[in-house]
Amino acid sequence: MHRxxxxxxxxxxxxxxxxxxxxxxxxxxxxxxxELHRYLAFRGIEISEGPIRTKLESLDDRMNLQTKYDRDAWxxxxxxxxxxxxxxSHQFIRxxxxxxxxxxxxxxxxxxxxxxxxxxxxxxxxxxxxxxxTDGVKGKKKRRIKRLDFLEFFDVVVIGGDDTxxxxxxxxxxxxxxxxxxxxAGKCVFVGDKPFTDIRGAKTAxxxxxxxxRRDWGSGDRADFTINSLAELPQIL
Length: 237
Ligand SMILES: [Mg+2]
Known about the structure:
Elements: E1 9-12, H1 21-42, H2 49-65, H3 74-81, H4 90-107, H5 114-123, E2 127-133, H6 140-146, E3 156-160, H7 172-181, E4 188-192, H8 195-205, E5 208-212, E6 225-227, H9 233-236
Parallel strand pairs: 1-2, 1-4, 2-3, 4-5, 5-6
Helix pairs in contact: 1-2, 1-4, 2-3
């Protein structure tokens, strides 16, 4: 099999690459739909949880495709899409956002091969890095990352949109991570699940790229390699 030799550092995206973000999203969508249903029922508006959840799922994908990560800005859009004519209070917006993230964090566990793969790469002498995007509010993602139980493996963590002005697919977060490691981008390989942010940004910065195919995002930049699980990495590097 064709291999990617000569790399000094392996850098990773976080959500849906190292942690099971879809499980987190499912829990977050359920909790928000339940809360919203209750809120409206209390005000005499009967919209059941199922349709609210379906609208929220599609809104989540759409906002991600547009790299709009501030959840506070999502809820008025969701309100409109489910046909609720109510004005939504700032306080309730904050409550939904807190509920979304607490549910997400509790349910988005690392994949089974996350820790073993990171430990293997570390043993092999690679520098490890994480390049992830903001959760839309400065400081929020950093707090989420601090709670990860595999953080000890990483030599560098960069949060696009917080540590740099722009999020992926800007090359800036990738360039910052490489410079913090003291390595040229050409000695770094980036592993991520989204072709339109992870692969495009890393490529623009001059890194080699590996697409971890968790689901089909449709169009996007082609990576040097495509894998279906982290456990395949040792065969490539
Ligand atoms: Mg991701």
